[in-house]
Amino acid sequence: MLGQRGCRLLTGVVLHGYDAVLMENRRLAIWVLPGKGSDIVQFLYKPRDVDVTWSTVWGLRQNAGVSRDFVGQYEGGWQEIFPNGGMPSDYQGARLGQHDEVARLPWQWRVVEDTASRVSIRLTVELVKTPFRLEKLLTLESESGLLISETVTNLSSTVQSAMWGHHLAFGPPFLSSNTQIETTARTVIVTDEPIAPRRYRAGSYSWPWVLGVEGSRHDLSRVPKRDGTRDIVYLTDFDTGGYRLFDPDCGLAFSASWDAHVLPYCWYWQELGASGYPWYGRHYNIGLEPFGGYPTHGLGEAMGNGSALQLRGEEVRCLDMVLDVRECHVDSSLGARDIRSKD
Question: pTM of the full predicted structure?
Fold first, then answer.
């Protein structure tokens, strides 16, 4: 309701051919695209006018339907990924593309509540190639972060496998080489050999240290400078699912929390100016992506290593997440743990 204080919704908007909704409270302004996979394309901290999401060099392109591949229509922002994470994969005769299918489908949606104290929308999608339905409730209260309450339903009578993730990507101006990462994860898994432009050696490590191709240790809790590399590693062994990104210079901290029994991994993607397709050295960003299943080689490999989710016939699986931005103070002499909220 425009004009009200506290929370508000803006509906009836189309961005580049996609249905869009703006959700606001006193601190946050969040653009959601139900017409494009339910993507979040802005997560703005209003008091400082800082958007913590990241945008590709081409940004949000005009709606081209479902024919364009994931990278071709990837504007940055944050996507939901289900049931295939990463590279294309075959599943029971269906050919699943990169990060197929929900990120490439329009979701049905409706307003649940629009008051000064709370705004909420419900989004639903039934998949085309696989027998699943996803439904989620997005809620903002007057002083809250974004509350996500979600279910996935196996619409068939037989056991089905899936990968389930939230593809959260961060870039400048929020992200810099001063950004630090706190997480409740204890283990880092590197699956790919360090063939250029990768630099981390395959293996299992204790957070935050991993070995590089040159033999030295790298601290993953500190975001690297732009150096022309591209890597992805997998965080796991969470007490509770969660991480926090903060920059002492920026003075803002982004936090994500979720049920690690449902999503026991967090993919940590580093895009640090790597040359070649698809961005030819033009991007500096990271992704920290809560996930059920790994690595980023598709559902077939996740089924093979036992990390894919298994849903019994007609089973309903639930997930709760909270995403938030707060101002913070960091005492560099005491390290990353000394974060004191100002809100």
Answer: 0.93
Tokens found for residue 130: 């696989």
User: If you search the block for the tokens 């590089």, which residue do you land on?
Assistant: 212
Taking the C-alpha atoms of residue 72 and residue 117, their distance in angstroms, rounded to an integer, is: 39
Cis preceding linkage at 264, omega within 30: no
The three-class DSSP label of residue 318 is strand
261 in a domain, yes or no? Answer: yes
Q: According to the model, what pLDDT value does residue 250 have?
A: 82
Rounded Cα–Cα distance for residues 103 and 70 (Å): 8
How far apart, in Å, are the Cα atoms of 56 and each of 139, 202, 228, 237? Answer: 27, 28, 17, 31
Mean pLDDT of 246-254: 89
Within-domain flag for 3:
no
Domains identified in the chain, total number: 1
DSSP string across 297-328: B-HHHHHHTT-SEEE-TT-EEEEEEEEEEEEE
Partners of 167 in beta bridges: 79
What the block records as the tokens of 13 is: 């908007």
Pairing state of beta strands 241-247 and 309-311?
unpaired
- On the CB side of 340, CA atoms within 13 Å amount to 6
